[in-house]
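#struct-pred
JK: can someone run the complex with PRP? inputs below
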Amino acid sequence: MRYLTFALGKGRLAEKTLELFEKVGITCEEMKDKNSRKLIFVNEELKMRFFLAKGPDVPTYVEYGAADIGIVGKDTILEEGRKLYEVLDLGYGKCRMCVCGPESALELLQHNQLIRVATKYPNIAKDYFYNKKHRTVEIIKLNGSIELAPIVGLSEVIVDIVETGSTLKENGLKVLEEVCPLSARMVVNQVSMKMENERISELIRVLKTQL
Ligand code: PRP
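RT: done, structure tokens with the ligand placed:
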């Protein structure tokens, strides 16, 4: 039997994923050691390998088949637009992709003038404004702390993830429009889905019993 390789997005999602996997008997003790600099972990009994990667790289590993399975946020799947199968909504990491800004920006969204949109997700923002709202905007790509942009005048609005809403609240911003709901998803390489169908289908089946 060959190894089934999993790419897990680093951070909060990975912790929840390991908890879920543990419930169905898939364990990887080594992986819990936060001080370890090791990158790949093996469960010999189950013939499974796990590695942690930056979220946006997970769909890349899966599309190329370097990982058979990936666990990653829907935001990353939409943004990266890779060729893969999305097979399961894991239900955790729930949040929303939203257009946010100061209340005064609501009016700008209503009219057709050119506004600037700062975001870590330029493809999602483009799809939303161009294809769903049929309007032209200027997209400004940032890499974090997106809420700063409308405060310091870099953009009128942002497209960003809202979970509890506290970052917005503490910075005097609001949700102006909702783009889509998000959560953690399991994705599968298209060839692996055929070649390892039995193992992967069984994995999906047992995971579903815990959701
Ligand atoms: C995310 C997101 C928001 C915040 C939303 O940022 O970009 O800033 O969390 O969460 P809340 O609604 O619960 O306040 P993250 O912490 O991932 O860091 P970043 O700003 O560097 O992207």
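RT: quick notes.
The CA atoms of residues 75 and 182 lie 6 Å apart.
Residues 120, 144-147, 160-167 surround PRP (CB under 6 Å).
JK: thanks, will look after standup
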